[in-house]
Structures are given as structure tokens and as C-alpha cells.
Amino acid sequence: MLVESSDNSLGSVRFVPVFQFYDAQFEECGAKGPRPRYPRVWKTKKKIGTISKSLKLVECIKGLSNVKVEVYGALDSFIAWELEFPLITVKKAIKSLEHEKEWKRIIQVTKWMLSKGQGRTMGSYYILLNALAEDGRLDEAEELWQTLFSQNLESMSRMFFEKMISVYSQNEMHDKMFEIFADMAELGIQPTVPIVTMVGDVFKKLDMLDKYKKLRNKYPPPRYIKGKRVKVKMQYDDQNEIDNSEIKGSDVINGGESLKLHENGEVSDCDCAKEDKLYLPENIDSNVTD
């Protein structure tokens, strides 16, 4: 919108943009229109340039070897001039490495970040657990899982249970798979559809059709009405319910070999008070390759 303004000296008419007459509290936004600016009660940090920084971080470590000292030294030199730890940049770099399926680099960067005391969230530990499982380092993945499960017994997310059941299902470790499923039942955690599907497939593979039917009756597949998921109340006898002790105390026959499962429902002990049992990057020797 333009406003007519007369110039007496030249006797001409000129047009001046309207936003020039607005008060100082208004300023032009990205949509080319004025809007009021109110004082904020929280502090904001500029996040401009984190994408380019994350790409530089990825390129910095791509050509390196798998020696821990070399990788950690390159990462330390990358953030040497930063006043604060660039957590957002590192997280974006890990995401880009996930898209490229660079599992070894993800493990190295995540352990380095955790060794700095940064990003110690369940999401970061899940990324590390997934990378260890995808890289075939099952022992380290189990150690990390046991530590997290013992520390967060009643607040563990279902995605961790689903991931470990998926790992044990792929490696045909049915006894440990049933242990985790029984732990979920003891803690009152409702299993997801993929978990029920994986456990049911193992029951069918081992010709345990009676337990498969009980499992499907207790955890039926989701129902949809006109494209919307609905809850349907199921009525079944107490005999159809899967008893945890029945799952743990049964002998699973697989190719003539019996898989002895735990008869008690107690969670495996893990002394969380001892720092040497925590799975953190500080516990790994500097000469060992990641």
C-alpha cells in the first residue's frame, strides 16, 4: 500500500511505502509484512549454520581409520574453538550418518559425545544400541541393554524392548527373546503389534500352536472402522491367558535341542552403583578400535 506525499519545492507528487510510517516496535518479517515484536521471557540461541557444520563434521571423519585416538582427536579439534558443545550439530551429523548407514562412525561419534557428558538421553542410547546391533556387535549391545534396563526398570520405552526382541529374533536366540517378553508382561507394558508378530512367528516356527493361539487371543490385532483404529473389548477365558511362568518354565524344542528358560520371573541383577559396570566410552581402552 502506498501513500501520496506532495513536495512543495518541486511541485510534484511522489509515493512513499506505508511501512515507513510504522512505529519502531514494528519491523518487517520474512513474509514482507509488519508485525509487532514482544519481549521474550526465554533465551534463544541462533541455530543458523548447523546443517553446514554437520556436513563438515561428517566429511572430517569419513576419511579416517577406525582407531579411537585418531577419530576422537579429529572430533576434539573440530570443536576446539566452540564456546559451547555443538550438540545440535553433532546430532544432525549422526542423523546424516544414519541415512548413509555408517554404523561404525555412528558408534564412534556417539561414544565421543557421551564421553564429553553431552546428549545423555534415551534417544542417544537408542541410536547407539541400534548401531551396535546393525554392526553385529551383539555382546556390546546386550551389555548396554542390561545397563539401561537395570537403571530404568519401570520407565523403559517400548522401542527398546522391540529392538532387542528383533535382534534376538534375527539371531534365533529364542530363550532371551522370551525372557524380554515375559519381563514386559511382569512390568505391565503392553506389547506393540510388531512384538506380538515376532513372538507369534517363533511359536509357529517351534510348532507351539497352543501358545500361539493364546497369544493371539490375549493380544488381538488392531481393528479399524472406516480407516480409524478402534478399541474392541475382547472376552476370553482365563485359560487363554498366557502365564509368565508358563513361558519361562517351558522347554522350547528346536531341532532336537531344548532351550532351558528361566523358571523365576526376576530381572537379571545389575549393580548400577558401580561405575565400572556402566557402558560408557571411558571404559574402552584408547588402543582398541571402535
Description:
With 290 residues, the protein is mainly alpha-helical. It has a domain at 2-36. Helices cover 46% and strands 11% of the residues. It has helices at 50-62, 68-78, 87-99, 103-115, 122-134, 138-151, 158-170, 174-186, 193-205, 209-218, 244-249, and strands at 2-7, 12-17, 26-28, 34-36, 223-225, 228-230, 251-254, 257-260. It has a two-stranded antiparallel sheet. The longest helix has 14 residues, at 138-151. Residues 237-288 have low confidence and may be disordered.
Layout: helices, strands, pairs:
Elements: E1 2-7, E2 12-17, E3 26-28, E4 34-36, H1 50-62, H2 68-78, H3 87-99, H4 103-115, H5 122-134, H6 138-151, H7 158-170, H8 174-186, H9 193-205, H10 209-218, E5 223-225, E6 228-230, H11 244-249, E7 251-254, E8 257-260
Antiparallel strand pairs: 1-2, 3-4, 5-6, 7-8
Helix pairs in contact: 1-3, 3-4, 4-5, 5-6, 7-8, 7-9, 9-10
The biggest sheet, with number of strands, parallel, antiparallel or mixed sense and barrel status, is: 2 strands, antiparallel
Please state the overall shape, judged from the principal axes of the Cα atoms.
Answer: globular
Please tell me the overall pLDDT. 76
Oligomer: single chain
Query: Whole-Å distance between the termini?
Result: 63 Å
Number of contiguous helices: 11
Question: How are helices and strands ordered from N to C?
Answer: EEEEHHHHHHHHHHEEHEE
Protein name: Pentatricopeptide repeat-containing protein
InterPro entries: EMB1417-like, PPR_rpt, TPR-like_helical_dom_sf
Organism: Striga hermonthica (Purple witchweed)
PPR repeats: 121-155, 157-191
